[in-house]
Amino acid sequence: MSEKFVIDIKKGQSPYDILKEAGVSIDKAIACRINGLIADLILPVPEKGAISPVFPEDNDWHRIYRNSITFLLFRAVSEIFRDTRVVVNHSISSGYYYEILSSVLPRTEEITALETRMKKIVENDEEIQREALSREKGVRLFEKSGRTDTANLLKNNGPNDIIIYKSGPVLDFYTTPIAPKMGILKHFSLKPYPPGVVLQFPSPSSPFKLGPWKDQKKLFKIYHEQRRWNQILEITNVSQLNNAISENKAGEIIRIAEALHEKKLSVIADTVSHDRQKRIILISGPSSSGKTTFSRRLTIALQVNGLKPITLSLDNYFIDREETPLDENGEPDFESPKTIMSDLFRQQVVDLLKGKKINVPKFDFATGKKKNNTREMMVEPGHPIIIEGIHALNEDLTSMLDPDMKLKLYVSPLTQVNIDDHNRVTTSDCRILRRIVRDGQFRGYSPTETINRWQSITRGESRWIYPYQETADIMFNTSLIYEIPALKKKAVEMLKTVGKDETSYSEALRLLCLLEFYSEIDTNEIPFTSVLREFIGGSVFKY
């Protein structure tokens, strides 16, 4: 929140007009906050309070920019192509991948024409009309316009009041406000990426400059595979997921999703069994990916194949939290490799490979300190060592080992079903919900503490984890199509404890609004070996 620009506003006044009258330069503002909550910059406010503009240094600015760019693409597609759907999919490099669904795949020259039209709309700074209305009226408008994905979503779930956006021949709905006008959306690039396109936009660290394109073929393969599975299940958006839940199909969905995880784990175990040179299995991924449960289940799958693996968790090599290095903003950088006792870790891995016993340290997350006791471990000759942690793929940590000994696995919840065609659920949102539920129950952190720490975590992941994901030999998607409905009950309970005066209130409310679109499911049918049990509790594994 931009405290130096906080201005009082009365009910029915326009934030845009009030801020301009106050002499605030809002050329780069994309939305505002009223009483700390994100709101549209143009629409009259529903209550009196204090407003402040949302500028590029605010994380919400970038979320709104991405949704606004989607709206711009949708507007241009409606003019260039006929009878065509645009479906936002997943992130790739510094952008989003979109499907352009028509009877014929778009040609390269048509993509070029599409980008040219988008730039012209921005150059003309075309107006975006907006209207606040009831959810019921919104359903009728979207049904009339052929947007059944959004109409079906809003029939039974979501807020009672919504905002619709109009430009040219199209209207749309988003889970955030969108830009006041098209002219602010100057920085983007449209790239053909068969069978769809990638729309690149600036990163939060450089809001007015496009970063270099980095192809991520392994990641794209995982996304495409999950998309095919969702299509087979006929669940490609939240409305279809909610319908399946209402038809008592939750148990079936859970069993299919868990069986897919089990099948993929078996394939990885077979890979290790067939190549006994792979003694070191490295498992990395961002926070709340389910790495620990994955490593436990992989251990079982390897044992089924006659192997006797041991597991080293990098979490046990953490330095005391009070010694955590600071990032460039002076905040603790919990994702830095310097949080690991690297020398001790390297020496113990080498000793294990020599057949020696080691004493593995233990870290207490509740106190943030190393425990006094250790655990004795050794591995039988020729059997694998599983190394699990966010830095496991960082070459500096295992540079003393022969590369041919290592099998690199990247583990993360890489996919979620869309809210609707134009509103995606980020993997970051999935992970923070997992973490809020887990940390609140088992690590002694309040939702406010988790939320306030999250931006630093994701910033560290961008620096220390994501650059290594394409170096993985295998990627494992720990996402479960049913997980947000399963997390919903406990997440809502915890998020509702966040007070209006807390710094995390705006983000807590955003997550609560996201959860409104989902129906709940009973968690009793979730297997006790599921990765989700690491977060909701009830796992057979000890953490």
Structural class, from secondary structure content?
alpha+beta
Number-wise, the strands total: 20
Classify the beta-strand content into a percent band: 15-25%
Overall outline: globular
Spatial strand arrangement across the major sheet: 13-18-12-19-20
Radius of gyration: 24 Å
Distance between the termini: 37 Å
Task: Provide keyphrases for this structure.
543 residues, alpha+beta, Threonyl-tRNA Synthetase, Chain A, domain 2, Rossmann fold, 4-stranded antiparallel β-sheet, 38% helix, globular
How would you describe this structure to a colleague?
With about 550 residues, this protein is of the alpha+beta class. The relative contact order is 0.12. The strands form six sheets. It has a five-stranded parallel β-sheet. Strands 1-4-2-3 form a four-stranded antiparallel β-sheet. A four-stranded antiparallel β-sheet has the order 5-6-11-10, with helices on both faces. It has three domains: about 5-55, no CATH class; about 60-220, Threonyl-trna Synthetase, Chain A, domain 2 (Threonyl-tRNA Synthetase, Chain A, domain 2, 2-Layer Sandwich); about 220-535, Rossmann fold (3-Layer(aba) Sandwich), CATH 3.40.50.300. α13 (about 485-495) packs antiparallel against α14. It has helices spanning about 15-20, 60-80, 110-125, 135-145, 150-155, 215-235, 240-245, 250-275, 290-305, 340-355, 425-445, 445-465, 485-495, 505-515, 535; strands at about 5-10, 30-35, 35-40, 50-55, 85-90, 95-100, 130-135, 160-165, 170-175, 190-195, 195-200, 280-285, 310-315, 360, 365, 370, 375, 385-390, 405-410, 475. The protein contains 15 helices and 20 strands. The mean pLDDT is about 95. The two termini are about 35 Å apart.
